[in-house]
Specification:
CATH class of chain B: Mainly Alpha
Number of domains of chain B: 1
Number of domains of chain A: 4
Distance between the termini of chain B: 41 Å
Helix content of chain A: 40-55%
Strand content of chain B: 5-15%
Strand content of chain A: 15-25%
Structural class of chain B: mainly alpha
Largest sheet of chain A: 12 strands, mixed
CATH topology of chain B: Arc Repressor Mutant, subunit A
Oligomer: heterodimer
Shape of chain A: elongated
Radius of gyration of chain A: 38 Å
Largest sheet of chain B: 2 strands, antiparallel
Structural class of chain A: alpha+beta
Distance between the termini of chain A: 58 Å
CATH architecture of chain B: Orthogonal Bundle
Number of strands of chain B: 2
Order of helices and strands of chain B: HHHEEH
Radius of gyration of chain B: 16 Å
Number of helices of chain B: 4
Number of strands of chain A: 24
Amino acid sequence: MQQWWSKIERALARRRNLASELEQEIDAHLEFLIEENLKRGMMPDEARSAARREFGNTAVVQERGYQSWQFPGFESLLQDIRYALRGIMKAPGFPLLVILTLAVGIGANTAIFSFVNAVLLRPLPYPSADRLAILWSGLGYSGRAPFSSFEVFHLRQRSTQFEQIAGIWVTNGALPGDGPAEQVKVADVTSNFLPLLCAQPELGRFFGPDDDLSSAPSTIILTHGVWARRFGSDPSIVGRSIRYGNHRSLVVGVLPADFRLVFPDDASVPLNVEVFESIPVGPWRADGPAFLHVIGRLRNRATLATAQSEMNSAAAQINKLGGRASLDNFSVSVFHFQADTVREVRPTLLCLFAGVGLVLLIGCANIANLLMARARRRLRETTIRAALGASRFRLARQFLTESLLLGVLGGGAALATGYAAIHAILAARPPSFANFDRVPLDLRVLVFTFGIALGISILFGLAPVFSVRSIDLTRDLKESMRQSAGSHRFSLRSPLKSWTSALVSAEVALAFVLLTSTGLLMRTFINILHADPGFRAGHVFTFRVSVPGYAPLRSIQQKLAALPGVQSASAISHLPLDDAGNWYDYYYREGASPAEQNSVMADHRSTLPGYFVAIGATLLEGRDFTDADDARHQHVAIIDDVLARQLWPGQSPIGHKINLSDSPQGFYQFQRDWAIIVGVVHHVQYHSLTAIVRPQIYVPYPLAPRPSMSFVLRTSGAEAGLGTAVRSTIDSVSKDIPTTQVEPMQLLVDRARSESRFASLLATLLSVIALVLATSGIYGVLSYSVAQRTTEIGIRMAIGAPRAQVLRMILADGFAWILPGLLSGFLLCLAVTPLLAHLLFGVQPTNLANYAVMLTGVLIVSAFAAFLPARRAMKIDPLTALRYE
Amino acid sequence: MSTVDNLSDDERLGLLQGTLEVLILRSLKLESNHAYGISQFLQQQSDLEFLVDNGSLYPALQRLLQRKWIAGQWKTSPNGRRARYYSLTPAGRKELLRATSKWERFAVAMAKILAPEG
């Protein structure tokens, strides 16, 4: 190693010095010889030329002397690279095609793999992320539910497998600090929550047990973002008491800029929480509401299995304590935190990964065909070089260098393409990917990209080497001379041809699989576009407010409804398709057995009168809430048709009693309550446009007051200046009501569609690439074959074959590859498309119309690709063709 | 190639692989010398049996320099010419000793085998 290094060092530093020294030395040598010759009595000129003769070839001596200082292997490698580069510059068409194919094929893989890497392979950005687990509570038929404070307290008491068990609940609140009143996402966390996900705060401290004491002052922790935005990154913020909603809070810490809340999509813990408050956990109310999403860190030797079995017995004990509404089937599920977080996106990602894999395979088939055609074309060069004494090893290295060079260039291009694609995907990603906003090109991605690029180039670089292995100089020189003049060395039966046709068939098959899958995803997207969300989003605008009290809230509602252009105005606690928390609980009808009482959950919503008209939901039966529906009168509820069919199939639920959760005592003072059903409304899609997740129960606001509500404004279409009008309306009630921006409801609908749009968009892109590659494969191979067969075709035509027959012959050649490809593609589809099932909506994987459309599409496109070379063959002039021979 | 030869090139002895380096080291044993001087020395010492090709001599000198067995230094020759004088380094001296004994054993062994029997 050191020897090498000193060699390099010297070679670099003394290279020029060395050359001139050698030259001087040789000069001196010549002078000695001349002097000698002069002494022998020669004339000066004669002496000089004699000396030169005697010395020998000075250039050779110099070069050979010089050479011993260089690295012969390295030098000839450079030579190979120079040669390969010259080849690329001389005929850039072929290498460009290969590099382009690699750039697209591998680039797509780089991009998707980066996501796979960032989402599935890289640990979440938390300390000991691998030991983090998420806990879901289950009651009856529902899994994946949050816990009550009582349950968390008792789980903690009974846990030995967990170091920590912590909970979070996200709601809406006011942005702290002076300045315009603004609504932001606020998380209530147990004091041990943040240390689980963050090594240390940027400033100050985390919450401690003391913050949970009822005597402790109100404390908050800010994210880096809100600290920078609202407080100008003021380093003295910690320890200061600032305005927070309608009271003051002490800032105890600021989280680092890279802190991320990455939670499962259905945990209603969004990424953009800006303020953290601490909430105590205790055994106070056995029937308290379940709202805490719980995570825990396993102890060093604990496993998910030991934790699960411990939680099972803890749940059994908690059942005995009596808890929520005489709950007796409480259970706890423990999942790996990261696995659970990526549960939703994992299948989409893997499908995309498979898709780009197919594109790469098609690209490889193309490259293989290109390289084989080229290796044949270069047979003559290879043979001549072998004849001139190039060793097989030397030739192999030369070929390998060339294809490795292509591989490196292709890999570099792929990296650039991939990088661009990552950013395009990030910009277009659906909300379920929202938590994954960091997709680094890390070492693993680099290894992946260049691994594939170099693997492919080594594989294909060696192909011509194997053909060199079997070189027979005399035969091949003769052959290659003839071949360059356009002979048809490859008949249909030659092994090369069968390889080529197999590759083309494979391309067609893979492209067909991609197209069929894309067809299904596009159909899904169209179905989602037409899916009925249960409300009409057009001309509806929404914003959230912190509720200043029931009377001011109603006053705002009335004033908003009176705004010009506004047809109706109302408010709801949870907007459809919004990610801002959720409120769901158990329900049962009058007379339900205890077993039925805690088996099913419904989304509960608190509304103002007029909500259904404003959002455009259909009231099927009964009436809307009125001002008279308050806590002092008969408690009433409106249910959706899903719940109606479930509890009272075939009859009207109006007038029936339902047990639900409400809080007439105040914010979050939840209790079980009986309400009379006064109306039935058509189901509204709250969580997605495609799935009915839970039935819905609406209660009037006075029965379930909330600190924050979303207003819904239906306008007549004249929406200009609405935001300002809304703000001044609210200011006229009070200048201190935090609100969010006014947004069109359509935005939420579009966001809900974006997952499907994203999947179908990417799939379409991949299919187009696949189709282009496959078609160019068919075209290229057929063109090559026509060029090879020029003479043959010329002869056929000279002896009277009609042009149409030639056309048929070439087309038949093409279809001899295309049809088996389609058939195997169809069979592949039968195996592959069912894997897409969970991404589809309203269309079966085996949809016949889809097959028919894609089959016709591939047939037409590939027929076109085959037709172009066939037409060229048809136009061959027999005279010209034969003149070559 | 030498014009003063009375032996044709074919009749001269080719050098065995690796011998040239040893011979160069030997030529420098007593005094430092330049390339021309070394080739003169070798030809004369071998009674003009060895043809020293410059195309081999120079690379051999470079190799010896690389191995640090000899060192080069520009000096003025007695007749006033500047030339690069090579001299043995301590390592070169050691190598010469090692190589000499090896070659002697080799020569004796060769002679034993090639000697006419009886």
